[in-house]
Amino acid sequence: MNAIDRRHFLTGTLIAAGGGMLAPSLASRAACAAESGSDDARRRAFRFAHFGDTHVGGGATMPFCASDDGYPKALKDVHALEDAPEFILHTGDIITDAFWATEESARAQWDVYRKIMQEHCRLPVRYTLGNHDVNFGWGLGAEGTPFPGKKLALEQIGLPSPYYSFNHGGWHFVVLDNTQPGGWNGFQNLLDDAQFAWLEKDLAATDSATPILIVTHAPILTVACFFEPLAKTHPDGLVISNDCVHQDVVKIHNLFRRHTNVKLCLSGHYHQVDHVQYLGVHHICGGAVCADYWRRPLTYRPEFEAGYGLVDLFSDGAFEYRFVDYGLVGYQDDPQRKHYAWGEV
Questions:
Q1: pLDDT exceeds 80 at position 105
Q2: What is the pTM of this model?
Q3: First vs last Cα of the chain: how many Å apart?
Q4: What would the CATH number be for the domain defined by 6-325?
Q5: Which of 205, 209, 304, 342 sits CB 3.0–4.6 Å from 23 for a disulfide?
């Protein structure tokens, strides 16, 4: 099947909070007010849901992936919220894995995803490409393929480009594509020269009074990489893989320093949740809707359940972030196991 009817991707589903638990907000109202001005001057502009790493569809590389039941539960939970989000922002790894898959397998995974969205989603969705959404080899060097290895994924989510920007509720969103060829595992995280030049122009064209939210799949800046089992050690000490960390973080942050209205960078990739504040910019890695590929909490950090983020953005550039454990049990998991609310001490 070729490109998915875009209406089904930009419109979505509803359900109750179920057994989910709202963790304490990442940035409290008091903390935001301290940064941005008095609480009286603030008003919430809007709320959206942050979905990361859904890994829907199984496929040859992960036939055990039980997303057919799990993903509808997450969508139902979002739709049942009394204080509903206006849209879903998906930070990539939409399907289970196309990177090493055949085209037939990748298309089958997209078919599963499309069917779930058609049946269970009524909210608009904005998409980011993840490393598992693209293929290592398709179209490499092929004439007429503007984004080698990414053409099918772009068709499926109805985007002409893997990076773009949009405005919503007084905020400016910049969606970037940081999955690039190279690295020991076939890809690395950085912005190519053309994309970085585009980003410079986009930030320069945005009014300095407009708060900006940067969206990537892999984090620009994170501490989760230190808890990633792919991190390698050698006689010189700890080495973090270039498919885990952003290679051009210094270059990007130097650009952000010229645009102090860059407030928040939102990502996924690690299936963990962390929050880093550096030189006035907040970086949130937002966990995974699928936890450990729909099987259990994250194996090497079992505190991280299957969940999604709720993000409140305010007119003064402040934000609140909550991670929602939506109560997914039965995925080779003990229903009596303690659920951790991220942010609890």
A1: yes
A2: 0.85
A3: 48
A4: 3.60.21.10
A5: 342
Which single residue is written with the structure tokens 């951790």? 340
Q: Are 77 and 18 in contact (CB under 8 A)?
A: yes
The four Cα atoms 311, 314, 317, 320 give a dihedral, to 10 degrees, of: -30
How many angstroms separate the CA atoms of 165 and 174, rounded? 4
- Taking only the tens place, the pLDDT of each residue in 248-292 is 999 999 999 999 999 999 999 999 999 999 999 999 999 999 999
Backbone angles phi, psi at 76, to 5 degrees: -65, -40
Give the number of other Cβ atoms within 10 Å of residue 98's Cβ. 31
Q: What pLDDT is attached to residue 307?
A: 95
CA atoms within 13 A on the CB side of 129: 30
CA distance 288 to 236: 32
Sequence letter at residue 217: H
Task: Read off φ and ψ for residue 284, nearest 5 degrees.
Answer: -120, 120
User: Which sequence spans correspond to the domains of the chain?
Assistant: 6-325
pLDDT grade for 25, boundaries at 50, 70 and 90 = very low
